[in-house]
Specification:
Elements: H1 3-39, H2 44-65, H3 72-75, H4 78-98, H5 103-110, H6 113-124, H7 131-148, H8 159-175, H9 185-207, H10 215-238, H11 244-247, H12 253-265, H13 272-289, H14 292-299, H15 302-310, H16 322-341
Helix pairs in contact: 1-10, 1-12, 2-9, 2-10, 4-8, 4-9, 5-8, 6-8, 7-13, 9-10, 12-13
């Protein structure tokens, strides 16, 4: 494979990873919307249990249609099993944090994940993160602060649980990049759903808070289950495809989904600060999407720097026409001849 073809393949992988990240964040955001509608009447542990159980059924059905049920057993080993265990820790830490933090504050801290993941990829996997990746992530994080606007309650001890969730998320995603995982993304999604289901049922049983929801609420939880299943599967693909510096900043698209879903379904329209935050997030995505060659030309000074360093124009460089150059040379010879005669 030539250098040029390898570069094109890398660009295709980057955009494929970014596409799956956008799908994953859309799934997570729609899940949040459905869960929010049910959370007014039922505890979080019961919602987590039922939604995750329905997601597991949904993913089992897909595995059956794809003829991959036999791959579930062999997948429960090595890195895939470790990833599933770490993913369960992410859910546990985040659910615990929500017992003492507002959703806005928890979401603000958790949105450190793209930046920490890029830093870990650079330090642990020695992956080169371009400047545009860091700039895109910082713009996305700044936009998140304008959309979410956390308050001083972020200093609550429960915030440490969100930090733990961030670290576990980074480890989970690094496991998808540090080597090959033979498990299907659908198997990985199934393991994540089963882990969250066991956590939900265990917490609900301990609190004695399990009450079967009404039919309308079950329908909303079924939609949430389908959305979170899409999120599980697409996130597994996104974190194993493309470069971290390109794909990671697209995680902030979940906030754009949240603003749009809130306006469309809840009639909760964003104010000017939130719109500015959305613009910064979109700007971060645009910065990451600009080809690397553009930034290299910009860093080298662009056309003006090339003109300054090229010196005076010459006929060979396409500068002065050769006929004018010859005329100047003839005039110079005549001047020298006249001086010698005098």
């Amino acid at each position: 494979m030539t250098v040029r073809s390898a570069g094109k393949q890398g660009q295709r992988d980057d955009w494929r990873g970014a596409g799956f990240m956008l799908l994953a964040m859309g799934g997570y955001a729609f899940n949040d919307l459905m869960v929010k509608a049910v959370a007014e009447h039922h505890p979080a542990s019961m919602i987590l249990a039922i939604r995750s159980a329905l997601a597991a059924v949904f993913l089992l059905s897909i595995l059956s249609l794809r003829g991959e049920l036999r791959r579930i057993g062999p997948s429960l080993r090595g890195r895939a099993l470790l990833r599933s265990a770490v993913d369960s820790l992410v859910t546990a830490c985040y659910v615990y944090a929500l017992s003492g933090l507002s959703l806005a504050n928890a979401a603000a801290i958790y949105q450190l994940t793209p930046i920490v993941f890029m830093l870990a990829s650079a330090l642990v996997l020695r992956e080169a993160i371009p400047l545009r990746g860091w700039l895109g992530a910082l713009l996305g994080f700044s936009g998140m602060l304008l959309v979410v606007r956390p308050d001083g309650a972020m200093l609550d001890p429960h915030a440490l649980a969100v930090v733990a969730a961030v670290m576990c998320s980074v480890v989970r995603d690094l496991l998808m990049r540090g080597g090959t995982i033979a498990a299907s993304p659908f198997c990985l999604g199934l393991f994540s759903a089963l882990g969250a289901m066991m956590l939900g049922f265990g917490t609900a049983a301990e609190a004695g808070a399990f009450v079967l929801p009404a039919s309308r609420e079950l329908l909303l939880l079924a939609l949430a289950a389908a959305a979170i299943a899409v999120g599980y599967v697409c996130l597994a693909v996104a974190t194993s495809t493309g470069s971290s510096g390109f794909v990671s900043p697209f995680r902030y698209s979940i906030l754009i989904y949240a603003v749009v879903f809130g306006a469309v379904f809840l009639r909760d329209f964003p104010d000017n600060a939130a719109l500015l935050g959305v613009a910064l997030i979109l700007g971060g995505g645009a910065v990451v999407s600009v080809p690397q060659s553009f930034w290299q030309r910009l860093a080298s000074g662009g056309p003006i720097a090339r003109l300054r360093s090229s010196g005076p124009p010459t006929p060979e460089a396409g500068g002065l026409p050769s006929c004018k150059t010859e005329a100047l040379r003839t005039s110079a010879r005549r001047v020298l001849t006249d001086e010698e005669q005098t």
